[in-house]
Design brief:
This protein is mainly beta. 9% of the residues lie in helices and 18% in strands. The chain has 2 helices and 6 strands, in the order βββαβββα. A 6-stranded antiparallel beta sheet has the order 1-6-2-3-4-5, with no helix packed on it. The radius of gyration is 25 Å and the shape is elongated. The protein starts with 6 loop residues before the first strand and ends with a helix.
C-alpha cells in the first residue's frame, strides 16, 4: 500500500469538484473526510460567498461547508480502474437557480366559497 501525498491548502488547492481526502487539524476525530472543493465567487456581495469552501461527505461534518483554512491538508484519491473520475454527487443550491420541484397539486377551494355573499361583498362588487 502506498502512502498518500498530502498537500497543504496554503500551497495548492484541488480542482473544483474533485473528490479528495481532507484532514482538518483539531477536528473532532483525527480521521480524514471525503470532500470536494467549491470555489468562492469574487464578484458576490457577501463575504461568505467569496471564500472557498470544502463540502464534506461525512456525518461529523454536519453537512455544513467548511471554509478553507491554510492549515487544512488534502490528498487526491486514486480513481478506480474503468472510471474516468469520481462523481460529484453534492447538491447545489444557488439563489439564482433553485432546485427543480415537482408541480404542486391544485389548491382546494377556499372553505368560504360555498357561502352566500355578505353585504360587504355585494358593496365591493358595485
Amino acid at each position: 500500500m502506498s502512502t498518500a501525498d498530502w498537500v497543504a491548502a496554503s500551497s495548492e488547492l484541488p480542482d473544483e469538484g474533485e473528490t479528495v481526502l481532507l484532514h482538518i487539524p483539531g477536528f473532532l476525530l483525527p480521521r480524514p473526510l471525503i470532500a470536494t472543493l467549491r470555489r468562492g465567487d469574487p464578484t458576490h456581495d457577501g463575504e461568505w460567498y467569496r471564500r472557498d469552501h470544502w463540502h464534506c461527505a461525512a456525518i461529523l461534518a454536519i453537512g455544513s461547508p467548511q471554509v478553507v483554512q491554510p492549515d487544512h491538508v488534502w490528498c487526491r484519491i486514486p480513481t478506480p480502474s474503468g472510471v474516468d473520475a469520481w462523481a460529484d454527487t453534492r447538491m447545489r443550491f444557488d439563489a439564482a437557480t433553485p432546485p427543480e420541484s415537482p408541480p404542486l397539486a391544485p389548491a382546494p377551494p377556499p372553505a368560504h366559497q360555498h357561502r352566500q355573499p355578505t353585504l360587504f361583498d355585494q358593496m365591493e362588487a358595485v
